[in-house]
Amino acid sequence: MHIGDLLDRSAIALRVSAANKRQALAVISEIAARNFGLDCGVVLDALTEREAAASTGVGHGVAAPHARLEGMQRMRGVFVRLEHPVEFDAVDDQPVDLLFALFAPKDAGSEHLRALARVSRLLRQGEMRERLRQARTADAIHAILVQDGDTARSSAA
Q1: How far is 94 from 57, CA to CA, in rounded Å?
Q2: Contact of 58 with 125, CB cutoff 8 Å
Q3: What is the CA radius of gyration of the chain?
Q4: At what angle do helices 110-123 and 126-134 cross, to 10 degrees?
Q5: Which region, left, alpha or beta, applies to residue 93 given φ > 0 means left and ψ of -120 to 50 means alpha?
Q6: Which of 6, 46, 104, 152 is the right S-S partner for 108, CB 3.0 to 4.6 Å?
């Protein structure tokens, strides 16, 4: 699975203001609802429920919130860059400013886990995180994620 298959330019938001984790998840929910034809409240509830089980803050200012949802036909993603990092109960106790959320069909199997692993590997790269923080447009973010995600996949093959 390619990052480009998961992430549309319209599902990327930069310079997002959020005072806390819940507000960041609410922004992601709004973008997902608008782009994927879902109910915003249902999306937020699913993300919040997942976060209650364990934080998706993976470290280095990155979080990968995710949920399985009725109405999803395939895996989809939302990328958000916050103006100011928020506390996210991350594994390294660092606040989060880069969020790549994944949404899967309710009955998704291992595809969901493979996509999470791919996003996590990609965002573990320090140079990648810095480029995402410096990018000025959604198109630039999309190009960085798609190009590097596909390059990482090719070199791993």
Answers
A1: 9
A2: no
A3: 14
A4: 80
A5: left
A6: 104
Structure tokens that stand for 113 in this block: 């886990």
Classify burial at 107, counting beta carbons within 10 Å of its beta carbon; exposed 0-12, middle 13-18, buried 19 or more: exposed
Q: Tens of pLDDT along 115-155? A: 999 999 999 999 999 999 999 999 999 999 998 654 444 33
Q: What is the pLDDT of residues 81-119, one digit of tens each?
A: 999 999 999 999 999 999 999 999 998 888 888 899 999
Q: Which of 2, 66, 112, 142 is catalytic?
A: 66
Is 66 noted as a catalytic residue in this protein?
yes
Q: Are strands 12-16 and 76-86 parallel, antiparallel or unpaired?
A: parallel
> Is the Cβ–Cβ distance between 2 and 150 less than 8 Å?
yes
Q: Where are the domains of the chain?
A: 3-156
Rounded to two decimals, the pTM is 0.92
Given CATH 3.90.226.10, say whether it is the number of domain 3-156. no
Alpha helices (H) in the chain, listed in sequence order: 3-6, 21-36, 40-53, 110-123, 126-134, 138-156
